[in-house]
Design goal:
Length: 264
């Protein structure tokens, strides 16, 4: 890319990303063209290979690279660097490289022993750990929202089943009068509650998978729907049906047959 002479002389040369080249010159090769950056003419030496969008969704091709000395002297009018990226030869040397960088910067910044650093050195592992911590926090927040949704849905199922028990009191009394036991009534309403929650789970899975496929087609995003998560969704729906349907079913099983037959 840049030569040592370009760096020492703060030469007005630049490398552009694919998006910049397309916006400024279209199908014409940008190599050799002159572009102005803050009223300074820079000669384009080359175009970077297209990279597409980053994980955060930003355009990695919307970029212009110049020698750092040119940026400091001609564009920013400053004599220091805000950020330095260093690549180690091997991940095994990462800790040693980090320690050597810290020692060198403390020496260059004339920081006395016992004084705190006025800079920060972070490895890719630390950045990854911070990103993972942020992802865990977001995952926990989404899990809490999902839990609240399940509780609200479970309360709705319980209310519906309680209304169903009240409206079918005479039916329950007739079943008990012809020989049904309390456990039979309990299983009947439990099965109804589980069936109701499984139908809701099925509709939710269809809506989720359908929305994911729609986004994949419209946005071109790669979407993965693991089968085990679909199974977990159905299992969670069944658990909600059993948990919130047990009380109405138990209430129905405890009805007195005589009182149930008299119920209007």
């Amino acid at each position: 890319m840049f030569t040592d002479q370009d760096v020492r002389g703060a030469t007005k040369v630049a490398i552009v990303g694919h998006s910049v080249a397309q916006q400024l010159y279209g199908d014409i090769s940008p190599v050799g063209q002159v572009m102005r950056i803050k009223n300074s003419p820079f000669t384009i030496l080359g175009e970077l290979t297209p990279k597409g969008l980053s994980v955060q969704g930003s355009d990695q091709d919307d970029i212009v690279i110049v020698p750092f000395t040119s940026s400091m002297k001609r564009l920013q009018a400053q004599n220091f660097l805000r950020t330095i990226n260093v690549q180690a030869s091997s991940d095994k040397n990462l800790a040693n490289v980090q320690n050597e960088i810290v020692e060198l910067l403390r020496q260059r910044h004339r920081i006395q022993p016992g004084r705190e650093d006025d800079f920060t050195v972070r490895t890719q592992e630390e950045i990854t750990e911070a990103a993972n911590a942020s992802s865990e926090t977001m995952r926990g927040l989404l899990a809490a929202i999902a839990l609240v949704s399940l509780i609200v849905g479970g309360i709705g199922i319980m209310n519906i089943m309680l209304v169903s028990v009240t409206e079918r009191t005479r039916e329950i009394g007739i079943r008990m009068a012809v020989g049904a036991h309390g456990r039979d009534i309990l299983m009947q309403f439990l099965i109804e509650a589980v069936t109701l929650s499984l139908i809701g789970g099925c509709l939710g899975v269809l809506a989720g998978v359908g929305s994911a496929r729609f986004l994949a087609v419209m946005r071109g995003w790669p979407i993965l729907t693991p089968p085990e998560w679909i199974f977990i969704s159905f299992a969670a729906s069944a658990a909600v049906g059993i948990l919130f349907g047990f009380y109405p079913a138990y209430k129905a099983a405890q009805l007195d047959p005589i009182d149930a037959l008299r119920y209007e």
